[in-house]
């Protein structure tokens, strides 16, 4: 009887104004006694942070990624530079991610419902599409960075080895691999009516294997350690080579004069890509590390302990930080890439039907690598 009174007192402190987004008052009545009411405000805050901050972030991301694609296509850089081909593929993937996330954020904010937990098909698609986009984002960044290593170490053959055609093939392979390798989520995830969560649809050994063993190790290789190691090693090589060129510039003579001139033309894009790589590592790191260490998705855990609520709260912070990776690339490119800023200006001039200044045309002609 005392236990029943404790549960009643625990749920009485919630009303319609304080009920967490995505849950109803009746849902809270099923929360066991082990959940302390004072601790539940963190769960509510987590969903509100994801809803409201995600709403703004995803809107910025959708606009920014559209501008990236427009800039690269209208300025015809995708036909002339392999690096811009990769940037278009990255922007397209990020655009899909932001669009999928925005639909969830709108539901949380406008309708006080988490559609991922309400509809079986959206539960599957949300897990699948976000996972696909995370794979494509990481490996596209890795591919363009590896290509940049090839350009930096052998600039005289860059236009032969690193062509837009080869970049398109690599991008298509990355996209197909992400779509196929993430397909297991379509069969594993679904609505659990008992826990009111978007988690494994069937509690059997195969599903447990996928969610507890396969997914953490798969994400370790495909989303975290694979792209991370490539980005860290590649950028270290790029920085070391650029420092070497800088120190030995006064000694470069003869045939190396041409190589020095080429290095001057590829430096702007190199700086842009290094900045984008560092941003990727910073934004995605906490979430990837957390999911691997915990070996489960804390959002899928029933809120029956204070620990589960705390894990959900911290994961919410990392989700918000991770979302920035897919939303701020346009800002990063503009801040770190002088050539990209000129291309943005050229794009708007073309859209407005105005002629392009000679300074932009000459700069663009000398920076195609």
> How many β strands by DSSP?
2
Beta-strand share of residues? under 5%
Name the CATH class.
Mainly Alpha
Low-pLDDT regions = 1-37
Distance between the terminal alpha carbons, to the nearest Å? 75 Å
Strand order in space, largest sheet? 1-2
CATH topology: Rhopdopsin 7-helix transmembrane proteins
What's the domain count? 1
CATH superfamily descriptor: Rhodopsin 7-helix transmembrane proteins
Shape descriptor reads: globular
Biggest sheet, open or closed, and with what strands and sense? 2 strands, antiparallel
Please identify, by name, the CATH architecture: Up-down Bundle
Which structural class do you get from the secondary structure elements?
mainly alpha
Number of helices: 16
Order of helices and strands: HHHHHHHHHHEEHHHHHH
Helical fraction: over 70%
Mean pLDDT: 75
- Nearest-angstrom radius of gyration? 24 Å
């Amino acid at each position: 009887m005392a236990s029943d009174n404790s549960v009643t007192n625990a749920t009485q402190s919630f009303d319609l104004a304080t009920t967490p987004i995505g849950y109803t008052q009746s849902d809270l009545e099923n929360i066991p006694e082990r959940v302390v009411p004072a601790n539940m405000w963190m769960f509510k805050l987590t969903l509100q942070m994801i809803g409201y901050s995600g709403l703004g972030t995803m809107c910025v991301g959708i606009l920014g990624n559209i501008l990236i694609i427009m800039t690269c296509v209208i300025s015809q850089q995708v036909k002339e530079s392999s690096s811009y081909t990769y940037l278009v593929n990255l922007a397209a993937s990020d655009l899909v991610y932001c669009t999928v996330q925005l639909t969830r954020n709108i539901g949380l904010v406008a309708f006080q419902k988490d559609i991922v937990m309400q509809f079986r098909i959206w539960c599957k698609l949300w897990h699948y599409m976000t996972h696909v986009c995370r794979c494509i984002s990481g490996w596209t960044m890795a591919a363009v960075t590896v290509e940049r290593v090839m350009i930096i170490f052998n600039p005289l053959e860059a236009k032969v080895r690193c062509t837009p055609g080869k970049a398109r093939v690599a991008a298509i392979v990355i996209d197909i691999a992400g779509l196929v390798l993430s397909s297991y989520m379509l069969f594993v995830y679904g609505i659990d009516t008992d826990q009111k969560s978007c988690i494994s649809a069937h509690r059997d050994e195969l599903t447990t294997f996928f969610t507890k063993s396969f997914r953490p190790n798969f994400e370790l290789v495909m989303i975290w350690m694979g792209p991370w190691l490539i980005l860290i090693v590649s950028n270290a090589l790029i920085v070391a080579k650029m420092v070497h060129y800088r120190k030995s510039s006064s000694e470069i003579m003869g045939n190396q004069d041409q190589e020095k001139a080429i290095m001057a033309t590829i430096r702007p894009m190199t700086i842009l890509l290094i900045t984008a790589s560092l941003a990727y590592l910073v934004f995605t790191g906490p979430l990837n590390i957390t999911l691997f260490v915990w070996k489960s998705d804390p959002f899928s855990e029933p809120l029956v302990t204070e620990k589960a609520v705390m894990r959900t709260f911290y994961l919410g912070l990392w989700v918000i930080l991770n979302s920035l990776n897919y939303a701020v690339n346009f800002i990063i490119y503009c801040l770190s890439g002088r050539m990209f800023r000129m291309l943005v200006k050229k794009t708007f001039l073309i859209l407005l039907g105005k002629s392009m200044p000679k300074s932009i045309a000459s700069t663009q002609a000398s920076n195609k690598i």
